[in-house]
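Summary of Year 1 activities. Much of the first year was spent building the evaluation harness for sequence design. The harness presents a backbone, in tokenized form, and records the residue chosen at every position. We chose the following record to illustrate the format because it has been used consistently in internal testing since the harness was completed.
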């Protein structure tokens, strides 16, 4: 016979189980949504300034929509015709640094290859415009896209390279066909999630990629998902292993893959092109040892890892400044 106390405990257990289930489902649904399709950002003022007067920044900018709907932007170099040092200032600094290094620099305005640019989580293609100022000055065309789930992309969910690694060669082939660029050298540059996508793409299509540069990339998608739990309320934070698994299940239900399927460090073992890696030593979101894992997994000696003191996850490039940009450009130039 069930006593009143046992009946009360049973009801309490059922209530707690129901609350626990609701919390788990909520974490799975909300967490997966924020991971795969974060709030999309609008064009920022510094984007608009460059878009309004690209020649002042040493750029010519055009846009197109890929056949599958991805918005694309193309930046090409424009050599300044004025001695005014405020025009294409960052470009001038970059070319000066490369000249001091005796890098194989072509005349300003000549295009020697194309860099496919891949932005970070919660980013958009326009975030790379200041970077294009440097890369274009070094002799490259830059092809920027809005990654699925970001910017103006019509695709609802980012997959961190799980599907983007197929999209990139298709968009590049389409661009080549429409502009008569058969066999033009292709490079990949990516920041954070973009860096991970670069690594996965280079592993899958080694014959198509000339060289890559990956900045602040994670070694496994499971790691940043677990790190995101740091921002949860303390009570829920104690359940990190559960919240991580719940989020992983939500990702699978929404987008058809588990985070464990996105492993740049594992893909690195299949990369055959030259690779440049950089990471901030003070990165608390994606630790620098993940860059070291990727570095050690890459076979051969055509690889370079540069760790930036005092740099965090979102400011590796700005902290590394002109010297780091020159390192990346030199890496690409020597791969030609």
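For this record, the design step produced the sequence shown next.
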């Amino acid at each position: 016979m069930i006593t009143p106390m046992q009946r009360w405990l049973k009801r309490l257990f059922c209530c707690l189980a129901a609350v626990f289930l609701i919390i788990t489902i909520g974490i799975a649904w909300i967490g997966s949504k924020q991971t795969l399709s974060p709030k999309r950002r609008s064009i920022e003022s510094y984007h608009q300034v460059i878009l309004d007067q690209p020649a002042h920044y040493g750029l010519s900018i055009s846009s197109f929509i890929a056949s599958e709907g991805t918005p694309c932007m193309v930046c090409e170099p424009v050599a300044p015709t004025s001695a005014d040092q405020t025009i294409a200032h960052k470009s001038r600094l970059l070319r000066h640094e490369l000249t001091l290094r005796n890098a194989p620099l072509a005349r300003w305005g000549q295009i020697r290859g194309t860099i496919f640019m891949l932005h970070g989580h919660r980013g958009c293609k326009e975030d790379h415009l200041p970077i294009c100022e440097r890369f274009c000055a070094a002799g490259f065309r830059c092809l920027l896209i809005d990654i699925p789930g970001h910017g103006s992309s019509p695709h609802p969910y980012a997959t961190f390279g799980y599907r983007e690694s197929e999209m990139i060669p298709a968009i590049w082939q389409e661009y080549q066909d429409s502009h008569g660029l058969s066999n033009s050298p292709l490079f990949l540059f990516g920041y954070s999630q973009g860096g991970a996508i670069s690594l996965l793409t280079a592993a899958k299509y080694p014959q198509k990629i000339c060289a890559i540069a990956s900045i602040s990339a994670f070694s496994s998608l499971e790691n940043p998902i677990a790190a995101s739990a740091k921002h949860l309320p303390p009570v829920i934070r104690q359940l990190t292993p559960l919240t991580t698994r719940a989020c992983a299940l939500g990702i699978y239900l929404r987008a058809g893959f588990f985070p464990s399927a996105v492993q740049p460090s594992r893909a690195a073992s299949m990369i055959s092109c030259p690779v440049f890696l950089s990471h901030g030593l003070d990165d608390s979101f994606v630790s620098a040892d993940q860059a070291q894992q990727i570095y050690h997994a890459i076979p051969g000696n055509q690889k370079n890892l540069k760790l930036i003191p005092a740099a965090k996850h979102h400011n590796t490039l700005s902290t590394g400044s002109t010297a780091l940009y020159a390192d990346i450009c030199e890496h690409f130039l020597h791969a030609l």
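The chain has twelve helices and eight strands. Quantitative recovery figures across the full test set are reported in Table 2.
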